Amino acid sequence: MSDENKKNEQLEQYRTDDKDKKLTTNQGVKVSEDEFSLKAGERGPTLMEDFHFREKMTHFDHERIPERIVHARGFAAHGEFQPYESMKEYTKAGFLQDPSKKTPVFVRFSTVAGSKGSAETVRDARGFAAKFYTEEGNFDLVGNNIPVFFIQDAIKFPDLVHAVKPEPHNEMPQAATAHDTFWDFIANNQESAHMVMWAMSDRAIPRSLRMMEGFGVHTFRFVNEEGKARFIKFHWKPVLGTHSLVWDEAQKLNGKDPDFHRGDLWESIEKGDYPEYELGVQIIEEEDEFKFDFDILDPTKLWPEEDVPVKLIGKMTLNRNVDNVFAETEQAAFHPGHVVPGIDFSNDPLLQGRLFSYTDTQLIRLGGPNFHELPINRPVCPFHNNQRDGYGRHTINKGQVSYHKNSLAENTPEPATEAEGGYKHYQEKVEGHKIRARSESFKDHFSQATLFWNSMSDHEKDHIIQAMSFELGKVESESVQQQVVNMFANVSMDLVKPVAEAIGVDVPEAKDSNVTKSSPALSQANTKHSPSTRKVGVIVSEGFNGEEVANIIEALKAADLQPEFISSSLGKRKGTDGVEVTVDHTFLTSDSVLFDALYVVGGNDLDKKFKQDTSYFLIEAFMHFKPIGATHEGKELLEDHMHGSPGVVAESDSKTFVKGFVEAVAKHRHWDRELV
Length: 676
Hints:
It is a single chain. The chain folds into four domains: about 5-60, Cytochrome C Oxidase, Chain J; about 75-375, Beta Barrel (Catalase HpII,  Chain A, domain 1), CATH 2.40.180; about 445-525, Up-down Bundle (Hemocyanin, N-terminal domain); about 530-665, Class I glutamine amidotransferase (GATase) domain (Rossmann fold), CATH 3.40.50.880. About 25% of the residues lie in helices and about 15% in strands. It has helices at about 5-10, 50-60, 155-165, 180-190, 195-200, 245-255, 260-270, 325-330, 350-365, 445-455, 460-475, 480-490, 495-505, 545-560, 610-625, 655-665, and strands spanning about 75-85, 105-110, 125-135, 135-145, 215, 220-225, 230-240, 275-285, 310-320, 345, 535-540, 560-565, 570-575, 580-585, 585, 595-600, 630, 650. The strands form three sheets. Strands 1, 2, 3, 4, 5, 6, 7, 8, 9 and 10 form a ten-stranded antiparallel β-sheet that branches. GO terms for molecular function: catalase activity.
């Protein structure tokens, strides 16, 4: 039986369908009445002996567990991982040995700063946590969609989170970094410069979770059967490419659909458009540890892909939605310390702190030490040890022995040898004085921030300038504003000068920077572009050109686009030739920000209100640089300045239109479009 089937079978015993069942208590006693509590007379007091009422209310009173301090807003899905080739040369990890073997996975995506009820398209880093249920135990790859972090040492993590969260005196703002305490922290903890560049870039507002890169952030080790170790970094590369929203669009989506990202993931899996990500690793030989102009253990630094190529080693496919968000997504317990033989740690000081804190977090969230026994967290392989009791214990241990060493149970369970699969830590020689200090090699805070800036396309640089101007424009302290601007003069004056002018502070003196290097892999301009699964809003009215439009719609579907019809009201819209379409959305219930592109069909019955609503949709989509298509009467609805603009396809010939429109959609955005 495959690991995937084992995990599904394991979870199956916990699944329940209450349809057509009799109501019972949690002890299985059938309940005869669930409308009224037990009373002394119809108008008398409720009796303490009403065990059903007590059980029902007690459970309700305790239905909420503490939300995660960070990454509270999350959504998840099940899937599988399959390697492309054996990685035996690099690691003895069992799930990376056989390219025919599939390993079940559970992946949780999340925002970082907001509460559980916050919106999803805020500007923020995104969590990308994957749990591999391997035959050797669970491996958790707990990462983000940004390859670096704000701080270098875990002791500063509470400070960072306190600064980024709503300010304690008024509990505002929610799920946002555009406030004084965050930027005060940045100005006074300048190791954050590189991460801030990513957070102010388009990477912080992804188009969807399906089009978002993931990174392990830290430096880990692969260790092979011979005990040879290599430094590695983990990468997730989305098969659809890495794409983002624009800021105005992201803000509007927070109001129009605060569940936009989870809805997109859920619908894609339900439709069978399974999200896919390739797992890659960067590998550095131990003897090359000090051959770079940065410290490879510094979590505020990345390894440029041009210097250390990413080797793609397998693919993950998410193919099943959760059955219950609380039982699975919310109770999932991830931990970077959950590794399997063949994967080990480095001395990255931020990683070392995370290895301590995650267990502590799960203890308070999930009520005790047995969170590993919850169905979503249970490994597919058996586990045996002398741990006993505690909150939430599911295992019923037999026998009198609960300690090691022993003779009463013949000293079992006994440790496994390395040959038997026992985990053996990499034997790294460590020596030195006990000291609270940081390596000199960690003290360059600006070179890679400049590298990131140099790697951006012109429109990406403009977006960073706009984002920083917006964020600092919300800061009330002029002193903090000036400190931040002065700090980022170390990155680029081309960034700082327009920001300083936008927020009304002094332009600082130029700092000397000799960083001219760039990394094309960092720019989303160089990602994969595909029309696949893009959602197209088709604006239609009565009397449209039936057969020809129907053929266009079928051609768009054949190109893996997803047309959805928009009109003034729900119901059917009749075209010529007896063609009818079913309206999916109205102008009132939808918005252009909910679609990747618009296709305007129109019809022969276009009243003033239809034209006004269509105009609003088109103007907004045009401002967001989205592809726009128009045929037949729809061409007359385009604004004058749209005709001939990049990404606007208005054709009479249907085949020419389909080809041009699909190509326009594949480009995602048309940045060279001039706004009028």
